[in-house]
Specification:
Domain Ribosome maturation factor RimP C-terminal: 85-155
Distance between the termini: 38 Å
Domain Ribosome maturation factor RimP N-terminal: 9-82
InterPro entries: Ribosome_maturation_RimP (IPR003728), RimP_C (IPR028998), RimP_C_sf (IPR036847), RimP_N (IPR028989), RimP_N_sf (IPR035956)
Shape: elongated
Order of helices and strands: HEEHEHEEEEE
Family: Belongs to the RimP family.
Function: Required for maturation of 30S ribosomal subunits.
Largest sheet: 5 strands, antiparallel
């Protein structure tokens, strides 16, 4: 699977896009999630268009055929509003945004936290991040973690009924 992810990343990078996720699903489905590379400004809402998905689909179909990758269907899409966060770069990109993070080990007696992602400091060569969350209405708490401590993480934006970020 690691080779498939690297192959997919290389093929998509040529189109000035980045791979967020590659997933093998039942019945031979290969699902690839793409986004625009982070340029340092904005970035909560993905601006992937259907044309981008079509270009990536055509490119990957050719590459996978040449490389002999076995799949029945290829699905290419954008990450959506609850975009997964996997790499340190993803966490850097979304500092200041609401996230939902589940840690591998309990911290402060819990593993799941929903709050605002903050940048912390660098410790022992790895970057630390902080989630600032509400314990109750009057008390704000913070939990620090390293990206390697994360079991799963995703954006958790507050949306109004018109679909816009609040």
């Amino acid at each position: 699977m690691k080779d498939l992810i690297e192959l997919t990343r290389e093929a998509v990078a040529a189109l000035d896009l980045e791979v967020v996720d590659v997933e093998r699903a039942p019945l031979g489905l290969l699902r690839v999630t793409i986004d625009r590379p982070f340029t340092g400004e904005g970035g909560l809402v993905s601006d992937i268009k259907i044309e981008d998905c079509e270009r990536v689909s055509r490119q990957l179909s050719r590459v996978f055929e040449v490389e002999g990758i076995d799949y029945r269907r290829l699905e290419v899409g954008s990450p959506g509003v609850d975009r997964p966060l996997r790499t340190e770069r993803d966490f850097e990109r979304f500092v200041g945004e609401r996230i939902d993070v589940r840690l591998r080990d309990a911290v402060q007696g819990r593993r799941s936290f929903q709050g605002v992602l903050q940048r912390s400091c660098e410790q022992d060569g790895s970057k630390q991040f902080v989630v600032e969350y509400q314990e109750n209405k009057a008390e704000t708490k913070r939990v620090a973690f390293d990206v390697t401590d994360v079991e799963r993480a995703k954006l958790d934006p507050l949306l109004d009924f018109k679909g816009r970020k609040r």
